[in-house]
Automatic annotation (TrEMBL):
Ribosomal protein as UniProt keyword: no
Protein name as catalogued: Tryptophan--tRNA ligase
Family: Belongs to the class-I aminoacyl-tRNA synthetase family.
Keywords per UniProt: Aminoacyl-tRNA synthetase, ATP-binding, Cytoplasm, Ligase, Nucleotide-binding, Protein biosynthesis
Complexes and interactors: Homodimer.
Organism: Acetobacter indonesiensis
UniProt-recorded Gene Ontology molecular function terms: ATP binding; tryptophan-tRNA ligase activity
Gene name linked to the record: trpS
Compartment(s) of residence: Cytoplasm
GO cellular component: cytosol
HAMAP family found in the cross-reference section: Trp_tRNA_synth_B (MF_00140_B)
Residues that hold L-tryptophan according to the record: 133
Superkingdom of origin: Bacteria
C-alpha cells in the first residue's frame, strides 16, 4: 500500500478551495492508502500568527478534518511541531537546496510581493520544510491543489540531489495527486486570485464553518459580469469570475462544467447564484454542524493529535535518524 503525506496550514479556517483541492481528496484516498495528515503549524508561522489564534485554529482544523471524514484511528492526524523529525530534516534540506531553485518558487513571489526584504526567511525556505514533511515518511504520493505542484517538483529535485550527493537511492520519487476538478478555486472577489484562508477579505472565501445565511450572502455578493451563462465552456473564456462559480458548482455537484452549463444556459447570475448556494450549503452544513459538536470536547481533539504524533514519530524517527547518520552526524 502506498503512503500518502499531505498537510494543511492552521493559518485560518479552511476554505472551500482547501476542501475541493485537498480535504475531499484526502477522505477518498483513505480507502486504499496509508495516510499521514498533518496540520503544518510550523509552516503557518512563516507569516505572523497570533499565538492564541494559532492554537485555536489548529484545534478547529482538526475538528473540520474529522468532521469531513478523516479517520484518525485508521490513519494518522497530528500537528507538525509535535514531531521534531520535520525540523531536523528541513535543516539538512536547507543545506541541499540551491538558492537558485528557491528563487524560482512562485508562491514565495506571490506571498512576499514587492516587499521581499521584510518577509521571514522561513517563508523563503518553506518548500524545504515541505520536502522534509513528505520525505521524513518516504511518502510516495501527495494530494495537493494545483498551487503546490511546483513545490512538489522541488521536493523531487531535493530528493534526487541528496541521493546523488551521498551516492544512495535513499529517497523515493514523489507523485503529486492533483484533483481533476476544481484544483484551483478562485477568490469570490477576484477571479484571477486563488481563494485563500488568509485573504484579508472574508467575503473572498467560503469558510468550512460558515452557516447557510453567511454562505448565501457571500455568494450573492460574489463578483460576476453582466452577461448570462453561456452554452459551452468556450463561452467562459475571459470571464474568470463566471468560470470560477461554474467550476465550484460542477465540483460540488460531482458533474462536468458542460453539464452545469447545459442546465443553466441563458440564465442570469441571480438564479444561478441561488442554485449554487444550495449546492454549497448541502456540502458544508453537515461538516460545520459536526465541527461544532467536536469543538465542545477540546481534550479529545488534543488527545487525537497526540496519539497521531506518537504514530507519526514512530515512522519518521528511524528514517530521519538514518539520514543524520548518512550525513555524518555522530548519533
Ligand atoms: N484556492 C484553492 N484551490 C484549490 N486548492 C487549494 N488549496 C489551497 N487553496 C486552494 C490546497 O489546500 C491544501 C492546503 O493548503 P495550505 O493550507 O497548506 O496552504 P495554501 O495553499 O497556502 O492555502 P491557503 O488557503 O491559501 O492558505 P494561506 O492563506 O494560509 O496561504 C493544499 O493542498 C493546497 O494546494
Amino acid at each position: 500500500m502506498q503512503r500518502i503525506f499531505s498537510g494543511i496550514q492552521p493559518s485560518g479556517i479552511p476554505q472551500l478551495g482547501n476542501y475541493l483541492g485537498a480535504i475531499r481528496n484526502w477522505v477518498n484516498l483513505q480507502a486504499d492508502h496509508e495516510c499521514v495528515f498533518c496540520l503544518v503549524d510550523m509552516h503557518a508561522i512563516t507569516v505572523w500568527q497570533d499565538p492564541a489564534k494559532l492554537r485555536s485554529q489548529t484545534l478547529t482544523q482538526a475538528a473540520i478534518l474529522l468532521a469531513s471524514g478523516i479517520d484518525a484511528e485508521k490513519h494518522i492526524l497530528f500537528n507538525q511541531s509535535a514531531v521534531s523529525a520535520h525540523a531536523r530534516l528541513a535543516w539538512i534540506f536547507n543545506c541541499v537546496t540551491r538558492l537558485g531553485w528557491l528563487n524560482r518558487m512562485t508562491q514565495f513571489k506571490d506571498k512576499a510581493g514587492k516587499d521581499r526584504e521584510n518577509h521571514s526567511s522561513g517563508l523563503y525556505v518553506y518548500p524545504n520544510l515541505m520536502a522534509a514533511d513528505i520525505l521524513a515518511y518516504k511518502a510516495t504520493r501527495v494530494p495537493v491543489g494545483e498551487d503546490q505542484k511546483q513545490h512538489l517538483e522541488l521536493t523531487n529535485d531535493i530528493a534526487q540531489k541528496f541521493n546523488h550527493d551521498y551516492g544512495l537511492e535513499f529517497f523515493p520519487t514523489v507523485e503529486a495527486l492533483i484533483p481533476p476538478a476544481a484544483a484551483r478555486v478562485m477568490s469570490l472577489r477576484d477571479g484571477t486570485k486563488k481563494m485563500s484562508k488568509s485573504d484579508p477579505s472574508a467575503q473572498s472565501r467560503i469558510e468550512m464553518t460558515d452557516d447557510a445565511d453567511t454562505i448565501a450572502l457571500k455568494i450573492r455578493r460574489a463578483k460576476t459580469d453582466t452577461d448570462v451563462l453561456p452554452a459551452d465552456e468556450a463561452g467562459l473564456e475571459g470571464r474568470p469570475e463566471a468560470k470560477n462559480l461554474v467550476t465550484i458548482y460542477a465540483a460540488l455537484a460531482d458533474t462536468s462544467i458542460a453539464d452545469v452549463l447545459s442546465q443553466h444556459e441563458g440564465q442570469g447570475f441571480g438564479p444561478f447564484k441561488q442554485a449554487l448556494t444550495d449546492v454549497v450549503v448541502n456540502t458544508i452544513a453537515p461538516i460545520a454542524q459536526e465541527t461544532t459538536r467536536l469543538m465542545q470536547d477540546e481534550n479529545h481533539l488534543v488527545k487525537t493529535l497526540r496519539s497521531g504524533a506518537a504514530r507519526a514519530q514512530a515512522i519518521a524517527e528511524p528514517i530521519v535518524s538514518e539520514v543524520e547518520k548518512i550525513v555524518g552526524f555522530v548519533k
